[in-house]
Q: What sequence folds into this?
């Protein structure tokens, strides 16, 4: 969290302070005490933010939409003309594919500018409303101060007659109400800011092609890589390269030796499909050497995109996965999907019977960010297998390995927080360049406060482990994606589902498992 | 607390009797979780019986327990199911949980669940425990038994392995 130079700069402290003042006013014993409390309340700064500046920014964003529309028209015109089958870029992108990708990217850009403008206007309105509420509260406090008159001298302060008591209690009542207005204003401003940050972070993560700054690839190459989704699924929900992947792959490209870089470009150009190309870059993003990536390409080259999807991408998100289909009797979401390879779920113990939820969710997280690791599990040593039983054995062996590495309990039961942090660092953080840090969540306020960082992490493609508990025990799951106010959760029972921010904050996480495990008490943040 | 004959009968005829006796002592000594009918631990719960010994004898007024593993992370749950035992012979005195991992919750760690029974009057009756695991039950939780006790609808593995029905253990209790 950020460093505040004065206690009043922290909204949470301001909230606690104002709530306390409101109560104390009602219990104040004398006029002087009440006047002091009123002054305390007035000394709290108003919610910050300049409504005019925010609206100006929003207009700036909105103004770009016109330019983007021009670009779209140009791209559209080229696309309609039909292109000869030419290869463009350094990686052998088919020109017509590139134009289609460009068309989609332009539409997304337009959505982003519109979306951000809306976010900023919404924030501007909310800040304005909060500041007005705050002003009303302040105004009423000043009014009560005037009504009460000056401070009592020493002797007057010792005695209060009935009329003075009535005046004081009346002023205290209105004063407390006024402080509540100020308190609500801080709340509204804080929540509006959180939502705006979430939306802007998400739009920033969606500006994907721009994450590749390397000059080793042309704009067309970058566009295609950013635009490629797994076969047979909604592209926008299943892009092979996350925004973090794109940035890391780009950085690594720049650091490769000339020989390696040439080899890499040759591999990309040799690829048969955009998916193959994207998986190669994902392997680079995960930290593999060019030699390893070469071996990997030998295993996947020429395979159809379906083969690649089931071997290399454990979690596929369906377009209807966010629909609310109600709850089952056990408290879980009816709308849940299963992560499977040839019918065998990515599940703890291979059949759900072992308490290796921590190790198992870590294995799946690693498989989501590293396609070589996924292929070793699904396709075996030569990467060519399509055997669910063999996959199950390898999966369980790897879960056991991580369970042991994390000093998990005997009979494959349970793991402590130190082990959980350590194996996430060694298995997942090593691929995404992150250092996982545990964050305990002891209240709804804690959970609300951590959401911004959780959402930013998953939007960039860095999974966030979450531990949940109830009266019957505890379980580990992973937050893997975010859209608007919804979070996608992977459960090592082999399923994924979407829960809302409210579910996370207010103890309804059972929707992602069952009603035994409603409470998110800890997350591990990749830093 | 336990008469010598009672203790001896735990050791005789059961595999790992020493381990079970030790577990019985642990179940009696450890503080238990909340939400149950009976106070934690203590000699009022009676001797722990081996779970796989389905013939139980007891004196009128005697209490005994059965302790099993339960785990929310693997959805391993036990239930006392119908038909209820003849209440003139045997009554249930509730169930209580003790987590394995102590104060800090460890994801994936299970706990021990202890069913307590009290023998009432002379006679013979039966009770049944239903043992649910990940593969054998769907849609259940600690207090909600599965809707059907047949094979689960969506198998976790490929079609090669058929799903099993959950284990039911029926105990015959002779009081007298």
A:
């Amino acid at each position: 969290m950020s460093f505040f130079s004065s206690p009043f700069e922290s909204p949470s402290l301001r909230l606690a302070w104002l709530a306390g003042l409101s109560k104390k006013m009602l219990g104040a014993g004398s006029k002087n005490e009440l006047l002091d409390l009123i002054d305390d309340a007035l000394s709290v700064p108003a919610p910050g933010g300049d409504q005019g500046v925010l609206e100006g920014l929003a207009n700036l964003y909105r103004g770009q939409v016109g330019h983007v529309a021009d670009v779209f028209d140009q791209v559209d015109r080229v696309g309609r003309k039909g292109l000869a089958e030419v290869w463009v870029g350094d990686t052998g992108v088919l020109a017509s594919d590139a134009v289609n990708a460009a068309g989609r990217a332009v539409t997304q850009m337009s959505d982003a500018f519109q979306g951000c403008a809306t976010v900023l206007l919404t924030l501007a309105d909310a800040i304005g409303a909060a500041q007005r509420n705050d002003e009303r509260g302040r105004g009423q406090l000043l009014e009560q101060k005037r009504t009460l008159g000056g401070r009592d001298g020493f002797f007057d302060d010792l005695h209060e007659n009935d009329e003075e008591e009535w005046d004081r209690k009346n002023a205290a009542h209105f004063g407390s109400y006024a402080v509540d207005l100020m308190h609500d204003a801080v709340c509204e401003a804080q929540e509006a800011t959180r939502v705006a940050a979430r939306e802007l972070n998400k739009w920033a993560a969606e500006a994907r092609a721009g994450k590749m700054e390397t000059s080793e690839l042309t704009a067309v190459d970058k566009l295609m890589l950013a635009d490629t989704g797994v076969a047979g699924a909604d592209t926008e929900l299943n892009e092979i390269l996350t925004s973090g992947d794109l940035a890391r792959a780009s950085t690594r490209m720049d650091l490769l030796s000339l020989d390696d870089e040439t080899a890499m470009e040759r591999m990309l150009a040799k690829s048969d499909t955009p998916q193959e190309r994207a998986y190669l870059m994902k392997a680079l993003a995960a930290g593999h050497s060019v030699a390893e990536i070469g071996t990997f390409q030998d295993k996947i080259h020429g395979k159809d995109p379906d083969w690649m999807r089931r071997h290399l991408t454990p979690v596929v998100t369906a377009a209807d996965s966010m629909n609310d289909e109600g709850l089952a009797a056990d408290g879980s979401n009816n709308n849940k999907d299963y992560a499977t390879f040839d019918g065998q779920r990515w599940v703890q113990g291979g059949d759900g019977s072992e308490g290796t939820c921590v190790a198992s969710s870590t294995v799946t997280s690693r498989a989501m960010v590293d396609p070589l690791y996924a292929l070793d599990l699904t396709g075996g040593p030569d990467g060519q297998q399509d055997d669910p039983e063999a996959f199950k054995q390898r999966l369980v062996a790897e879960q056991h390995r991580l369970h042991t590495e994390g000093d998990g309990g005997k009979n494959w039961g349970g793991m402590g927080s130190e082990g959980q942090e350590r194996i996430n660092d060694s298995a997942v953080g090593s691929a995404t360049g992150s250092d996982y840090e545990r964050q305990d969540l002891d209240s709804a306020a804690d959970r609300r406060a951590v959401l911004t960082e959780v959402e930013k992490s998953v939007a960039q493609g860095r999974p966030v482990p979450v531990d949940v508990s109830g009266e019957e025990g505890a379980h580990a799951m992973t937050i893997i994606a975010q859209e608007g106010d919804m979070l996608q959760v992977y459960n090592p029972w082999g399923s994924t589902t979407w829960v809302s921010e409210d579910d996370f904050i207010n103890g309804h996480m059972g929707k992602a498992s069952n009603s035994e495990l409603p409470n998110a008490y800890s997350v591990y943040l990749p830093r | 607390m336990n008469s010598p004959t009672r203790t001896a009968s735990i050791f005789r005829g059961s595999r790992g009797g020493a381990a079970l006796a030790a577990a019985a002592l642990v179940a009696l000594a450890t503080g238990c979780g909340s939400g149950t009918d009976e106070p934690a631990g203590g000699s009022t719960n009676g001797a722990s019986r081996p779970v796989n010994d389905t013939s139980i004898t007891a004196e009128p007024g005697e209490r005994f327990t059965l302790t099993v593993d339960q785990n929310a992370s693997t959805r391993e749950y036990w239930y006392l199911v119908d038909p209820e035992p003849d209440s003139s012979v045997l009554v249930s005195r509730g169930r209580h949980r003790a987590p394995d991992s102590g104060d800090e919750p460890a994801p994936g760690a299970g706990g021990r669940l202890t069913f307590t029974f009290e023998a009432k009057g002379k006679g013979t009756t039966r009770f049944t425990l239903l043992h649910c695991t990940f593969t054998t039950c769907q849609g259940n939780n600690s207090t909600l038994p599965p809707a059907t006790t047949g094979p689960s609808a969506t198998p976790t593995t490929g079609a090669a392995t058929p799903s099993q029905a959950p284990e039911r253990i029926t105990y015959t209790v002779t009081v007298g």
